[in-house]
Write a structure and sequence with these properties.
single chain; alpha/beta; Quinone Oxidoreductase, Chain A, domain 1; Rossmann fold; 2 domains; seven-stranded mixed sheet; six-stranded parallel sheet; binds NADP nicotinamide-adenine-dinucleotide phosphate; GroES-like_sf
């Protein structure tokens, strides 16, 4: 079967279509026939070698972080899934490769597809839904009544993060460009700041939680809207020592402590806390949130669809910054 793979890190990453064998289901795994796969900025970052030292992919590495599809084979030790089940999920970061027709995935990383969703919509969710859930339910522990500020509220992540924060009972403020102000309100944001014409500091103060999706200067700038005792969760800022533990590389803890010293110190001066998040696969969390998807509290937002064999175009659009709000998804058609 054809698979879209990173074959070399030279020249900013060489991506090619390869012929690969269909994988068998190992212990604890199922093989999923991919019906749709979502794109994420992470695909480009991996291709550009940004995770080369940390994850150490052996090339060629098939790209693609998430999927929706149908179980075609069940490996030994798997009890929760059967052939023919509709599933969605995000394989573990060292087991990616959904830009093809079939992939073996740890069953623990999958969940039954929410009723009422098509494959395309379902494939747009796992990575961003897990990111938002882990940011707000694990790192920041958002409670009803908390005030949450989300940068980039109509991006792939922001559009789902708004809905997850609202689902948890928060008041939500967000930044978007002028053309997306109405959409951000439709997604549930209570305060919408047009970042092209307004300064969010004038509208957002004393917040409990900030989700930093922009990084660079915006990390320290947006931290200033936190109240004392508040929490910034950054998905793009400097990694903190906890990330070294998550990677299973405690030896990197001092490095990440040093790297994050400035931002952690800035947070401390404000009486707040800085936490870096690198989302992880978690089928159980997806299953837990499925009812909120089924009752319409959390709705997927797909801006563009392509066929699997149009992946180059999809990747170009993703990199261009000109995509419509929400996610880009490639579909595997028979
Ligand atoms: N660490 C993790 O686990 C993790 C997980 C998911 C995502 N991420 C990272 O999070 C970032 C966002 O991901 P995504 O999937 O949402 O990307 P995306 O779909 O490309 O969205 C980016 C969004 O940022 C907005 N934006 C750009 N400049 C802005 C500014 N100055 N102020 C406010 N908003 C601005 C854009 O809005 P306009 O189009 O309206 O300008 C767009 O909606 C990426 O860097 C990604 O790698 C990290």
């Amino acid at each position: 079967m054809k698979a879209y793979a990173l074959t070399s890190y030279r020249n900013g990453g060489t991506l090619e279509w390869l012929d690969v064998a269909e994988p068998p289901a190992g212990r604890g795994q199922v093989v999923v026939g991919v019906r749709a796969a979502g794109l994420n900025p992470l695909d480009r970052m991996i291709a550009a070698g940004q995770f080369r030292q940390l994850i150490g992919y052996r090339l060629p590495q098939v790209l693609g972080q998430e999927l929706a599809g149908v179980v075609t084979e069940v490996g030994p030790g798997v009890e929760d899934f059967a052939v023919g089940d509709y599933v969605f999920g995000r394989p573990a970061i060292n087991r990616i490769g959904t830009f093809t027709r079939a992939i073996a995935v740890d069953a623990a990383d999958l969940a039954p597809m929410p009723a009422g969703l098509g494959f395309t919509e379902a494939a747009s969710l796992p990575l961003v839904l897990l990111t938002a859930a882990q940011a707000f339910m694990e790192k920041a522990r958002v409670k009803p009544g908390d005030k949450v500020f989300i940068q980039g509220g109509t991006g792939g992540l922001g559009s789902i993060a708004i809905q997850v924060a609202k689902h948890l009972g928060a008041t939500v403020a967000t930044t978007v460009s002028t053309k997306n102000v109405d959409l951000a309100r439709e997604l549930g944001a209570d305060v919408v700041v047009d970042y092209r014409t307004q300064r969010y500091e004038d509208h957002v103060q004393d917040y409990d939680v900030v989700l930093d999706t922009l990084g660079k200067d915006e990390t320290l700038r947006s931290m200033q809207v936190l109240r004392p005792g508040g929490t910034m969760v950054s998905v793009v800022g400097t990694p903190d020592p906890e990330f070294a533990a998550q990677l299973g590389k405690p030896i990197l803890k001092p490095v990440m402590w040093l790297m994050s010293r400035k931002v952690r110190r800035a947070a401390k001066q404000q009486g707040a806390e800085y936490k870096f998040l690198f989302m992880r696969a978690d089928g159980g969390r997806l299953a837990q949130l499925a009812p909120a998807i089924e009752d319409g509290s959390i709705k997927p937002l797909v801006g563009h669809t392509f066929r699997l064999d149009e992946l180059e175009q999809a990747m170009e659009l993703s990199a261009s910054g000109r995509a419509r709000p929400g996610k880009i998804v490639v579909e595997v058609r028979e």
